[in-house]
Design goal:
The protein is built from 8 helices and 6 strands. Helix content is 51%, strand content 20%. A hairpin with a 3-residue loop joins β2 and β3. The chain starts with a strand and ends in a 7-residue tail after the last helix. α7 crosses α8. A 6-stranded antiparallel sheet has the order 2-3-4-5-1-6. It is of the alpha+beta class and 232 residues long. The protein is elongated, with a radius of gyration of 21 Å. It has a domain of 44 residues.
């Protein structure tokens, strides 16, 4: 299994104990502290033996913040990077008041990850994403507001919360335009079956194309009803 890493330039202004105290507010994560750093482990998925299968670890040190993560099979690195960054962002911003963060570098990391995600949109479905540019501009505006919040110690808590909430809403709306249309998914299902000796693993297909398993099952039934495929 491959691994990836995201490095954020930052200087600790407080103590590592203060960082650990902030991080303990998050549920379903593991927080550990050593002499040189505080680490938080975010377990996303377990295997059949209840061992971590998908996860990432954020290391907070005096000289920076690093996010180390695993890349599951059949998941594009750019998709994984965006998924991890999206989940890690609220955790990192929760301790922003304890660090002098290189805001420009952080926003650049977010922007590059977003661009990588958009580049994965299939050419034959790009007509469905006419609002992408508007959404990207909106995200840029919100990120600019976030930068101002990070520079303002007195207003950071209130404005950071508002901006992060709006940014999350905007990203959720963008995700709607990253969803494959039914006809395109049907085409991909047929191609998958042809390439896998007439079989399809619904769970694996749903993970690769980031769609619910129930949606895949529904489209399979429609393809059978329309006589495009025959059940075994």
């Amino acid at each position: 299994m491959e691994a990836g890493s995201i490095k954020i330039s930052a200087k600790l202004k407080a103590s590592l104990a203060s960082v650990a105290k902030k991080l303990n507010q998050f549920k379903k994560v593991l927080v550990g502290k050593t002499k040189d750093r505080v680490s938080i482990a975010y377990i996303e998925k377990l295997d059949i033996n209840r061992e971590p299968k998908e996860f990432f670890i954020i290391n907070f040190s005096k000289d920076g913040i690093t996010v180390d993560y695993v890349i599951p099979e059949n998941v594009p690195p750019s998709v994984r990077r965006w998924t991890v960054l999206r989940k890690a962002f609220p955790i990192i911003t929760s301790v922003s008041g304890l660090y002098d963060i290189d805001v420009e570098a952080l926003l650049n990391t977010v922007e590059l990850a977003l661009q990588d995600m958009i580049s994965l949109i299939p050419k034959d479905s790009k007509a469905l994403y006419v609002e992408n540019d508007k959404l990207k501009n909106k995200i840029s505006e919100l990120e600019a507001k976030l930068e101002n919040c990070l520079k303002s110690k007195e207003e950071i808590s209130t404005k950071l919360y508002e901006t992060t909430t709006k940014l999350t809403e905007c990203r959720a709306k963008l995700k709607e335009y990253e969803t494959y249309p039914d006809e395109l998914l049907k085409s991909k299902i047929i191609t998958w079956i042809k390439e896998h000796d007439g079989e399809i693993d619904i769970e694996e297909f749903a993970r690769v194309f980031n769609v619910p398993e129930t949606k895949v099952s529904q489209l399979l039934k429609e393809l059978v009803d329309e006589n495009y495929i025959n059940p075994r």
